Structures are given as C-alpha cells and as structure tokens.
Amino acid sequence: MKACFDDGNSLSVAAVVVSYNRVDLLRKCLAALESQDRRPDEIILVDNGSTDGSVAMVQEEFPGVSVFETGINLGGAGGFAWGIERALAAGHDAAWLMDDDAEPLAGSLGPLVEAMEKAPDRPGFVTSTVVNPEGEPNSGHLPDLSPDVARQAKAGELGGMAVNSASFVGVLIDLVAAAKMPLPYADFFIWFDDAEYTRRLSRGAYGVLLPASRIRHPEKQNQVDMGGRLFYYIRNNLWLRRLDPSPRTLLQNPVRWGAGMAVLALRQGLQAQDRRLWLRSAARGLYEGLARSPRTIWPGQLLSKSVQLGR
Hints:
By secondary structure, the chain is of the alpha/beta class. It folds into two domains: 13-216, Spore Coat Polysaccharide Biosynthesis Protein SpsA, Chain A; 227-291. Helix content is 39%, strand content 16%. It has helices at 23-34, 54-61, 75-89, 109-118, 149-157, 175-178, 193-204, 230-242, 247-250, 254-271, 275-291, and strands at residues 13-19, 42-47, 66-69, 94-99, 103-104, 125-131, 161-163, 171-174, 207-216. Strands 1, 2, 3, 4, 5, 6, 7, 8 and 9 form a nine-stranded mixed beta sheet that branches. α8 runs antiparallel to α10. It is globular, with a radius of gyration of 19 Å.
C-alpha cells in the first residue's frame, strides 16, 4: 500500500476510482480528490486494462495514488469488486466509490464522513448528491427514496434523506458491513451492479443521501439502439429482481419479469441497426437472466486467487 493521507481523522477512508481509457477525465477526478479539505486516507485506482496511457499519467502526476491494474476490462462491476477487496485488505473503515468521469466538488467528502461518524446507528452507506455539469440534479442518478418513516427520521438527524440504493458515483460505504457480505457481483459487468450492492447495504442498516455533498457527473445519454449492450441490460435487470428478497419483489412472478424485458427487447428491435446482433443479445439476455445467476464472491477470495475474473 502506498502512503496514505493521515490528517488525524478517526474514520479511515479509501477513495476507490475505477477507470478505463479516459485519461483526461481521470486526471480531473484525481485532482478533485486530492484537493478535498478532508482528504481520503488513500486513493485506490483500479485500472481496467487502459491503453491510453492512464497508468503512466497517474504514476507521473499523482505519485501518492495506489494503482491496481487488472490487466483486462472487467467492467465497472468487476472493477469495484476489486476496489472494495483492496480497501478492505488495507484496513480502511469506509470506501468512497466513483468512476473516472466523476468529479467531486470542493468539500464533498467531509460531510459524508461526519455523518457516518456521528450516526448512533451507522448507515450502510452515505452518498453524495449527483449533479450534472450545470450543477442541477442529474436525471440519471435521482434518489431512490425510502418510504420507511423510521429510516427517514434517522437520516434527517444526519442532515439527509433515507434512500434504498445509490449509484457508484460518490457513495461512501461502510466497510465493516461490506466485510460481512459478498462483493459486488462482478458478473454484472455493467449496469445495475451498484443498485444491487447498495440495496444489500441498506437492507442491513439504512442508506442516506446528503445534499451537503455534491459530485459532478455527465448526464446519461439515451441509447435508442443499445446494440450488444442490450444483453447486459436485460440480463442484469432480471438478476436485480431475482436477487432482491423484499416481500414486494417475491410476490412478483418471474414470468412477468421476463415478459417486461421481452417487450423492451421488441422495442429495441424496431430501432436496431443490426437485427442479428439485436436478436442474439435479447435472446441471450432473457435466457441468462432467468436461468443463470451471477457468481457469489466473498471478500478475500479475489486476493487469495480462489476466484478469478475475466479469465
């Protein structure tokens, strides 16, 4: 582990950044992290096999950053699984997760750490408010508010709102809770891995959104034709529902889930430029979403090499 930023805080925090071939955005992200008034105790970069000089840039311009190279693109899901694995192994208490296109605004980490430290019942996560480049709420990261009155009261005492889930854009997770559950499902690769993982954290405790902490992120672009990514969207959406043990989800019929995704697939088919790719992606997504499940990987298994990703 490289040198940490020790500023006397009781809660040890690792910032975990997952990156792939976005060197200019990564530079802005790391600069924003290093300029925080409450700096992370360590910055862990998980590089997913970048070929654009990202690692060399970090080693030259940000020598204090701990770089872990996967050697292959594991997607956001695999990258964050590795990042949490390494943050746990380094002995940190919390991890602040984000992609390389996130830019924490000044003073963003302090309120998150303060809320987690002073909470009588520690939340599973405390997350930043995601804003677009204009500073307005980001429409792709709107809060999933909890209807639980007791949880809202707890979150209100911390200056925030109770939420059921959060994206991996500025979410500070409790690593004590994370150590007791499987890592993010790396097999998701992209999409819905963050919602699934933070739902687990909030079920065991509660999640909090803090307006006092803000992080900038580009707006998601509507994908009229998802192409091959339709496979991940359908499969992971079905996995998300199957992995949720809440009574509301259990009462729903898996056939109904599949039918909903089939309708989405048909709509995509009407706009697909490559119909063969669309058909393969839709059929495979429906099949794997209903018939298969992601691998369960516990903390320690990646470092012990008892489980390997992307091989």
